[in-house]
Recover the amino acids of this structure.
């Protein structure tokens, strides 16, 4: 069964490739705006479902995912600009937050869904450290304005759960879904 990845994320593509899984890269343009009073888990599930539903290509299976950072019951999606990234990093500094990723797999036999959550604790950060990180540009196009797999890893004090979930695709759970659906 041929697989499409309904995502523009190079990190998701790389995680699948590292697991030996080839996929047609088929980003879907869906509205990722936050809805008032929507929980972070509901948000990522809604967006991942929309990405999977929007795929109209020739692959029999489509995999879609969306990730957000949640703190104080709010979603920190992708930063709008450098100032927004600095604001997010100040909120996260010295505190624990949760990274939620929804994974949706649609095949001719049906749809499977899963939301995986991982707790991340940031160390205390100075304004100078936040400034240096934002100037690096690594925060762009990342939930919570950081990437743990790069320079952002130095911001993190501890992780409880799936590391690949924080990167953007919980690999263990995704592979289990692909096996259960007969894609692998």
């Amino acid at each position: 069964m041929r697989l499409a990845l309904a995502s523009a994320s190079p990190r998701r593509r790389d995680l699948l490739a590292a697991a030996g899984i080839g996929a047609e890269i088929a980003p879907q343009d869906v509205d990722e705006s936050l809805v008032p009073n929507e929980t972070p888990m509901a948000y990522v599930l809604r967006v991942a479902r929309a990405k999977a539903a929007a795929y109209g290509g020739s692959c029999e299976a489509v995999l879609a995912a969306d990730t957000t950072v949640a703190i104080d019951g709010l979603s920190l999606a992708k930063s709008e600009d450098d100032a927004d990234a600095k604001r997010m990093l100040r909120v996260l500094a010295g505190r624990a937050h949760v990274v939620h990723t929804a994974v949706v797999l649609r095949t001719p036999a049906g749809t499977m869904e899963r939301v995986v959550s991982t707790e991340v604790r940031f160390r205390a950060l100075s304004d100078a450290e936040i400034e240096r990180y934002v100037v690096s540009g690594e925060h762009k196009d990342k939930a919570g304005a950081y990437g743990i797999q790069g320079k952002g890893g130095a911001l993190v004090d501890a992780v409880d759960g799936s590391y690949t979930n924080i990167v953007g695709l919980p690999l263990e759970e995704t592979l289990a879904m692909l096996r259960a659906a007969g894609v692998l």
Observations:
- Helices lie at 10-18, 40-54, 82-92, 127-136, 163-167, 171-180.
